[in-house]
Structures are given as structure tokens and as C-alpha cells.
Amino acid sequence: MSTQPSTDRPDAPSATSDGFVRGLSQFIGGPLGSHATRPDARPNRFWTASRFVLALTCLVLALSWVQKSPCMSGDWQKNVQYTRFCYTDVLALYYAEGLNDGQVPYVDHQVEYPVVTGYFMGALGLPVHWYGTQKDPSINQGTWFYNTNALILSLLAVATAAIILALRRKRPWDAAIFALSPILLVTATVNWDFLAIGLAAIGLYLWVRRQPAWAGVFLGLGAAAKLWPLFILGPLLVLALRSGRIRPFVSAALGTVITWAIVNFPVWFWYHEAWLRFFRLNSTRPVDWGTLWYVGRYLDGKWKSGGAGDQGPFQWLADHIPTLNALTYALFGLACVFLVALGLLAPKPPRVAQMAFLVVAFFLIFSKVWSQQYVLWLLPLIVLARPKWGAIIAWSVAEIGYFTAFYAELIGAGGKSVIPEGTFVLASSLRLITVAVLCGLVIREIWRPELDPVRQTYGTDPDAGLLEGPDAGWVQRLRWSLGYVKPSMAEVPLPPAPDVVKV
Question: CA of 118: how far to CAs of 6, 125, 247, in Å?
């Protein structure tokens, strides 16, 4: 008999929190029974839930490598990179960024990525170029570069799965949503996004371990690889205000900003124009494939010709990028204001993962650029925020539909139409809608915390770190004044006792 307290036993999704899995379990005999022998009751068992999930992650990443194998030679004749769905920026940019010629990122070539990604590219690409020119000219440098990157990015993906497991010890099967995701299969090595994801995951783990300064260091490194980990500071600020514990947030924020500044400084100081390329490129980029603005422009074209004097609002914005930039920033800013209000007025403090998912999702929904691999930003966050299989599977299907339609559209861009433009717009719309639905479901569980599966297991936010605890007094008064909660009888001053008149 196990000596582990029942409250510490891993949650069985088929028995409690996940209706979708509970329904599917009927095909194999129904949910786990109260007298069933559980793996956690046998400490000598090798295949624990955590090890099984990590093995599944490795398997899916190996299949991802196989899925990308038709593109590894770099011989992309007849659009093979699109017809086989195996395109990867990692291989393409080995040549486009001059690494095949031994050019040092930022020094000899203005790399279009933030500095940690550029450092990473150079740290792997320059040794491959040296070996291919000095030691063994017969090797395919592009293949070696891709495989080296794929190995390290896959290790970061496994580390991300391990961190999800560490953050959800009572719910290890939540991490299987990440491990088995078709999103992971097709996009894991399209770009260097797992560099930022892995660093941000380490930062979140350190936050939970109550080391906010070190958490900030890794969030800063992640933000210097891709900008989005910086957004996690927003939810931490809201929750710090709600709890009245500002010091942990300040430590994390200072760690983030100082780390970001330190790793950016060499390029900013000595190669300033190269450092500015990332920011200038993002400010001048046109409307990207599959975004809200792309869909709107297509719909405008159904009623407007697009010519001078006959343009719809989305068509006009597509021709006036500075105005579009300002609008996207304004909409994202309004979404952040909404999240602040939600975070302060919800019945219970929202969980860190819920708020982090929402802020990143809102950024993508309103952005003019939504590259196919950006979906990886949302995957670990939604697993931590709302680990329910049904809605995530629907979203994953929509993402894979978009992935397929996007490659068909790229083939058509070369002059050979594969699918109607309306089909691609439909796939883009379904992606947008499913992400918006996930946001709505997370917001509902913030406003109705009794529906939150993670709270059902833990009773509180397992990711709160040093922000765990009751609301600050000013938050309680704010919520009382707005009518969101009534003060308890213990907090209401009693009226003075009436005078006693003796007869």
C-alpha cells in the first residue's frame, strides 16, 4: 500500500477533470475505478506517467525530424519544400544570412532576428562552415547546420515538456497534450522559436521555485531571442498588484531588463545599424499571410475594387503601414487594459498561466504578422492554462488545416494555383476563431474559478510563487465598491448598541 497521501496522487483525467477524455475512456472500459491499481502506487515501476510523457515527446520530435527530412539536402527543386510540407527557415537562412560564407551575424551581415537568436545561429553555423571548408569539403553544410539546430531545439522542447511536468506534478498527463500535439510535429524546427520557449519555461519554473531574480534572467534571455517572453511580466505585475506583493515582481522585472540590456549591448553599441534591422523590419513589414488584417482585406475585396477611392478599411490599412502599426499597438494595448481589469476584479486571483496565455494570444490575434511557427508560443501556455483535450484538439485541427492551406498558397504564389484564395482565407479564419474560443474559455474559468481543472486539483494557483496569498486591502475595497463582492459580516462594522432604559 502506498504511503503517499491521497491528495498528492496524480489526477486521473478520465475520472475527474476532463470530460473529453472521460468520454473517450468508455472505449476501453470507462474511467479509472476507485480500487484500481495506480502506477503511482508502485514506486519501483519504471514507466511512470512523467517518463512516458517524455518518451512520447522524444518520439514526436523524432517523427518531426523525419517529416522535415525531404528538405535537408537543400535541393529544393519544383517547390519540394512546399509540396512535402518540409520547409524550414533554419536551412534556408543558413544561406540567406551568409553563414555558408563564414559571415559573422551582425558583424558581417545584418541578421533580421533579436540578438540571442543571432548569437545562436552564429555559434552553430560558423563551426559548420569552418569544418566544411577546412576539414571535409564533401559535407553538405546546410544539412549539418539543420541537424545540429534540430538536435538542440528538440532538447529544448523536451526540457519544456519536463518543466510542464514539474509544474503539474499532480497532473502529469496534462503534459501529454504538449507531447502528442501535431503542432509540435510539423513546426518544432521551422524556426528558432524553441530557443525562446525553452528559456521562458525555465524562467517560469524559477518563478514558481520562488527565485524571481533568476526567473527574470531567463525571461530576459528569452525576450532577447524572441520578444514575446517579455509579455509575461504583464500578468506578473497584475497579480503582484492584486496580492500587494510588489517586491518579487520588481526583482523579476529588473532581472529581465538588465539581462536583456546586457546581451543586447555589444551589438547595439558596436553594430547599431545591424541591431536596428529587427525593429525596422517589423515596422515596415506588410500585412502577413493569414492574419486578421489579411482576412479583412480579402473580405474588403468582395465589395470594393481596391482602386483609388474604392477601398475598404482593411485595404486602406494595408497600404498605410504606419497607421496599421499604430492600430495594432492600440488594440493590443486595449486588450492589456482588459486583462488588468479582469485580473483585479475576478472572484479569485487568476492563475499566472491563464494570464500569460491570454496576453500572448491577444498579441497574435491583433498582430499584422503571424508566422506559422508562432503557434508554438501558445502550445505550452494553453497546456498550463487550460489542460482540457477537447478544445485544444479542435484548435490543433484548425492549425494543421491552416498549415496545409498555407503551403498550398505558397505553391500557388509560384504561378500554379492549388486552392482557391477563399479556401486559404477560411483556414485562416478558423485558426483565428479557435484561438479566440480558447481565450473565451480561459476567461470564463478566470471569472468562474470553480470550472478551472487546475484549481480543482490544487485548490489554488501552483504557479503563483511568492504572489500566493489573499488579496491586498485596496483590491478588496475596489471590488466591494464596484459591487463584485459583499464584505463578510466580520468586516462590516456593527451598529452601536441601543441605550438600555430601566423601568
Answer: 48, 10, 33
